[in-house]
Amino acid sequence: MFFSDITDDLRFALRQLRRSPGFALTAVLTLALGIGANAAIFILFDQVLLRMLPVERPNELVRFVWSGAYSGSASSFGGGRSNYFSYPMYKDLRDRNQVFDGMLAAVRTSAGLSWQNQAENEDAEVVSGNYFQVLGLKPALGRLLIPQDDTVKNGNAVAVLGYDYWRMRFASSRDVVGQTLLVNGRPFTILGVAPQNFRSAIPGYKPGVFLPISMVDVVMPWMASRDDLHSHRSIWLTLVARLKPGMTIPQAQAGLAPLWHALRADELANSEATSERYRKNFLDNSRLQVIDDSTGFSPERMTLKTPLFILMSMAVLLVTMCCINIATLLLLRAAARAREMSMRYALGAKRGRIVSQLLVEGGLLGVAGGAAGLAIAPAVTQFLVRLMTSADPGTEAYSAALDFRVLLFAAAVSLLASLLFSVAPILHFVRPDMAIALRQSAGTASKGTQRFRKFAVGLQIALSVVLLGGAGLFVRTLDNLRQQQVGFETSHLVTFSFDPTQSGYDYARTSQSIATALLTIRQLPGVTNAAATDDPELSGDSSHSDFSVQGYKPSEDESMVFEQPRISAGYFATIRQPLLAGREFTDADAKDAPKVAVVNLTFAKRFYGSAQNALGRMLSESDGNVPPDITIVGVVGVVKHTDLRNDMGAAVYMPYAQMLHPVGVQIYARTVQAPGTVEAEIRQAIHAQDSTLVVDSMRSMDEQIDRSDSDERTLATLAIAFSLLALILAAVGLYGVLAYSTESRTREIGVRLALGSSRRGVITLVVREMAIIAAVAIVVALPTIVALARLFRSQLYGVTTADPQTLAAAVILPAFVVALAAAIPARRAASTDPAQALRTE
User: Fold this and answer.
1) Is the Cβ–Cβ distance between 252 and 99 less than 8 Å?
2) CB atoms within 10 A of CB 618
3) What does the H/E/C string look like for 236-263?
4) Measured between alpha carbons, how far is 487 from 490 in angstroms, rounded to an integer?
5) Which of 496, 531, 537, 630 meets the CB 3.0–4.6 Å disulfide criterion with 619?
6) What 8-state DSSP symbol labels residue 47?
7) What is the maximum alpha-carbon separation in the chain?
């Protein structure tokens, strides 16, 4: 009986929607916008913040964060140095612990890969030999790395291909196993292909190839001079361990504490530390924290977390407005169905059957809207991924595909939405006045239903104001960032990365190749100058080193670690960073010439008081144990370096030519016309120099700035889109309520006009009530904007949480839309013919 009733309700609901195609289409499209936006953002939200690694029993995986003093070099791909460890420390923790079934080490990098004489720069992951074993993974083809593949330094030239890279670069050929792939010019034997659903233990990273740590000197040649496989003072690896069965995280942390203390004591005994305070902080105050790693360690997650929460909140507000809007449409439709429903009651229909019918109709709309939303979600997600991560097409680290989790989420949102907007007609028809409804063509709305309509409109207006306020704050933030003076001239500047070591060049050839490339580029038509650095601008990268200043004794807690870009001759002239005193580097500052440096104004003021006083002073690149041997020859202005929000801080620029072990660089070329006009010529010139050399990530500096502020741009773009949709939905809802209210008051308006009321008075009568509702909604929304802005203060720049301009705009635009939406019903009411109104009633 139950299923028969549901089937009947479903058939009847389909007939009702076919009779009102305009209403059905409007409702489905409205839901599609709300559910599609939620599903699209959830796809990315799930991958970045919620999804566990696609490995065996991911809930057993943990990673480590340490605290305490440290002295040495640190190389990281984000997240702070406390997440990274030296290779000797990794081996000691791996071999001497009693709480783990296995422990792996990994680091992300890039490498020059050459296959069939086609070279390219590709993301890579350098991993310990037990990497796949600890994660419990099986190969898609061939075999994976095993501990025996990671034994002898520079003696394990083997590789495992990432599944996506194998599919795209090797056309899924099963013949690749056993063949040779050139990695930075050195032949590596392909062992196999990683599993299809696995990309990396680092979420958001998609390496093309996995290589053993024993080959790090080949894969990451700039590390060879430091002998990082044996250095306790060089931290560069992230560690992941698998708990033994039955072991909990607190138990593992307690079990590791004695081992960590003993290992730190050994390192302290072999260090040159003399300060008692340093020794105490290094050993006694040092702790090793064990934390859950089921979702993986991703520094990118830290930057995307807050923007994604903001976007998810906006999407929830949008789908809420969609529900309110459809509820309003259903109430309008209910007016036309009053006689139908009253007739059904009169013929003996039970209240439960009416409620069931209305729920089925709402559910049908929810299913259709959810399906339409899912249809557009992948395209929206792909756009969102590219916008937030600045990824080029085909290189996206996150997938836009639908899976079971997304389908379940969309189904839940659709079900909840359909229940919410079905409440409106249920309340309207649950207790109808049948006598009046059968006698009149108008609806029989109760006072409770009328209050619901007014509340719904007020809520829509309030949510619109909130979304507009958020959009205004993000737009102002983006504008403030883009108006920032970065300290150098960004227009007519093209940039690209160039690393001859990825083509197998040694140090001498690398230095010569870069010098040749710069000379060649300077001679190209349309190029006025070219220079290079190992520490690119506005890319999120930084390079630091310890310095001592002659005649200056730092306090015990004072950091003497400063930004240290290595730059070629003419670098400041090329990017047009102001030279405030002295000179910049020239070709005479060669490898065997006296060491020189250019400092920025922040450094000069901190130690010498002025730019001029800094000239001729001496530094040393050390912690004070090396006599000063670097002469300051120039002072330059301060720039925005890692991002648009923060100044560079104190910096010491040194000649790239005096670098003991030259590495890859970022080249900048100043052009006469738009940068795009010379990009092809630059590629051809480099290719003519050597076909194995790779020009990677070529773009204009303006495009690089777009990448630098991608989070702010994403928030501003989507906030504007959501707020405009919200305004449209609020306007439709407001119009519907006013139109219905005006129609139900036709007799009253006719009487007023017949008794001499003016047309203007009628307009005031119609608009006054809605104006009060809008005013209350705006008054409630304004402090809500301020409160929410305080929660997301970290995403704002140069604007207060109660910015007057933003709040004013958030009020004026909705007020204008409210007036516009009210104008048509008010004008219709004012044009009512009293005689006709009284006759029809």
Assistant:
1) yes
2) 16
3) CEEEEEEECCCCCHHHHHHHHHHHHHHH
4) 9
5) 630
6) I
7) 105
